[in-house]
Design goal:
This protein is mainly α and 392 residues long. The protein is built from 16 helices and no strands. Helix 3 runs antiparallel to helix 16, helix 9 packs across helix 10 and helix 12 packs antiparallel against helix 13. It is globular and about 70 Å long.
């Protein structure tokens, strides 16, 4: 008699995420209100006004109406991270630090610096610009997560392009199965993918196509154990899917090389010097027409500028300069990401990119646990990072 063994297929996290998306599309509800109180160990079920910390008095309005985080929050569904090994602490810190910077910036994106000076962000907030609940991150993290999912399976521009289309059309790799944010250049590039254009020819190549939409998603390349030259080539290829002007490519090369040096254990000054040395040696001739735009970064004068000479727009040069200024003018993860958000304007992307760097430098162990435990899809992101660590 023939023995028939049926094996249950082990789904990748990307495939599980796709199942979630299909469930949302079929009518499953996604939580859009704040999970803060419902997830807190001090919550009293059925009592929205009081809890174990506010037993004898009413909770403040900013907690009742889900506007700002509670200082007493402790998750009753806590997810633990092993940060005893420095490399793991830095990897968790880099990727989750990116997501946390993103989620801190989402509620106040497009607000002005003047508004932030009047009402500086000092905590995790909700709703605001996109009316999203606590812990929700944007396209920055979604497309960065898509790249991680591809690198786990094996580097492929075709698969990455496929994931970008699924993000755009189906909400893949989003917190609640819904895409609520996408840049214009990225949208047009994805529409080119749908039309069948070769991935590396989909991105805009004019001077007007230099938003930060490729810079915002290439962090994972920094963690790969590859040569600086191979890293440069991969950044150029991955960026070109949505942004293929030389200015955007060089910005990505500089950022990824810097984070890569940090991940290798160099102090931030040493990491910066190594990046400048590599870029001068391997990129100057190829990118000579763009060199003048990077003068403040490559000559390191950016780190000594006054804040009023730091722009925080979505232009790729402004974003890159802001990130270097933030890293060298802050002394902790929290200080760096809050400073980033309070620059105003493109708050989520700049805080995400600065948060990725700061997370590598200071580690996940340095990040406010309330922020970590409130990250949307935290368990899925942790699993993704663990899978990623096994292939880098």
């Amino acid at each position: 008699m023939r023995s028939i063994i049926t094996e249950q297929k082990t789904l990748s996290l990307a495939e599980k995420w796709e199942i979630d998306v299909q469930a949302y599309r079929a009518g499953a509800s996604a939580r859009t209100s704040s999970p803060q109180c419902q997830k807190c160990k001090y919550n009293i079920f059925g009592n929205a006004i009081n809890c174990e910390k506010y037993k004898d008095k009413r909770k403040p309005n900013h907690i009742i109406f889900c506007e700002k985080e509670c200082i007493y929050f402790e998750s009753n569904q806590r997810i633990e991270f092993d940060t005893t090994i420095k490399e793991k602490d830095s990897l968790y810190g880099g990727i989750l630090g990116f997501c946390i910077g993103d989620m801190l910036g989402v509620p106040v994106e497009f607000t002005s610096r003047a508004e932030r000076n009047i009402d500086p962000v000092k905590e995790l907030r909700a709703y605001g610009t996109y009316h999203q609940g606590f812990g929700v991150w944007s396209d920055d993290s979604s497309l960065m997560i898509a790249l991680i999912a591809v690198l786990i399976k094996g580097y492929s521009l075709d698969l990455l392009s496929e994931y970008f289309v699924k993000y755009y059309k189906e909400g893949l790799f989003t917190p609640n199965g819904v895409m609520f944010d996408i840049g214009n250049s990225t949208r047009l590039a994805i529409e080119n993918i749908v039309k069948g254009v070769s991935p590396m020819m989909c991105g805009g190549a004019t001077e007007r196509d230099n938003g930060n939409g490729s810079l915002m998603r290439i962090l994972p390349i920094a963690f790969l154990n590859i040569s600086d030259k191979d890293q440069k080539k991969m950044v150029e290829e991955v960026s070109s899917i949505t942004h293929r002007h030389k200015r955007s490519l060089l910005a990505g090369i500089i950022y990824v090389n810097f984070v890569s040096n940090l991940f290798k254990g160099y102090e931030k000054d040493g990491a910066y010097e190594r990046t400048i040395e590599f870029v001068n040696k391997e990129c100057k001739n190829e990118y000579l027409t763009e060199w003048s735009y990077f003068r403040r970064v490559l000559e390191k004068t950016i780190i000594n500028e006054k804040v009023d000479r730091i722009n925080s727009t979505g232009y790729v040069i402004d974003t890159l300069e802001a990130v270097f200024w933030l890293i060298f003018n802050g002394h902790s993860y929290e200080e760096i990401v809050l400073n980033a958000v309070n620059l105003g304007d493109d708050t989520d992307t700049i805080a995400a990119l600065a948060g990725g760097c700061a997370g590598v430098i200071y580690g996940l162990s340095s990040i406010n646990d309330r922020w970590i435990q409130n990250v949307a899809k935290l368990n899925e992101i942790k699993q993704l990072i663990d899978e990623f660590r096994s292939v880098i």
